[in-house]
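Render this sequence as a predicted structure.
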Amino acid sequence: MRNSVLSAALVIAPMTVFADPLPSWGTSASKHRIIEFVEAVTDPNGADYVTPTARVAVFDNDGTLWAEKPVYFQLTFAMDRLAELAKADPSVLTTPTLEAAAQGDLQAVVDGGHDALIEVLNASHSGISVQEFQASVADWLDTARHPDTDLPYDQMTYQPMVELLRYLRDEGFRTYIVSGGGLHFMRVFAEDAYGIPPEQILGTYADTTYETVEGTPTITKAPGIAFVDDKEGKPINIERTIGRRPILAGGNSDGDFAMLEWTTAGDGPRLGVLIHHTDAEREWAYDRESPIGKLVDGLDKGPDMGWVIVDMAQDWDRIYTGAD
């Protein structure tokens, strides 16, 4: 009788259903390893438990959290803004490079290399207060569309990565962006797009000045780059700004290699995650030969370091947040 009652209780007892924390990730080894890591470091009874204060996760932005083709979105913004400035005052186009950029000639800017890029950034990003600059970024995001997808740029975030960020925060992690993109540029959209507040964004930043303008204390963006948050600059900026070595780092290119290497070289449980762009049908396929998002060292050395190499075509059921 006792066994019968127990059997009946087991039949009618409600089953516990656990929600999938990463629903846009297909069933894969990559997803399993990420979840396994998070469960291990958040289990207070486990050998790999990490206290909440030490649960720091850092992510690159371009090519990791949102797309980066055919060119970094911030450069597209810079060229569009320069064209708008030239409509109001053609005298801002003081060089052939700036004239080409205002006409949308991306190839001319690319062919001009680093010096041409700095010219365009100085002309489009400086001589304006931070507040005015960020308002212009917000206006651009409201109206601009990607030439290939016709999506707003801030809807070309990767849904699987948005889910990963949310999952980590639900499990007591603090999530940071550590990107070569502009600090003031990313701070405009990152909180809405990723749930990451402005104070948890590390990026490249220009020189700035402080002055009182018509009675208003103002921080103005000046020409020149004060710090480039790329390659070895990433772990340097993390140490300087966050003050803790992360236990998880995510990137997609060799510009992120030093950040993942430094993160996973620490003591205790660590995880590096590399997004490998393999999906030419739903996005773009690129790695070793790409001028943007070049990935060589990560592919060659990452597996031996225990990093998760995410195959976008195989591991993600969905790509963009804004796409059906």
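Summary. Residues 1-13 have pLDDT under 50 and may be disordered. The CA atoms of residues 277 and 286 lie 6 Å apart.
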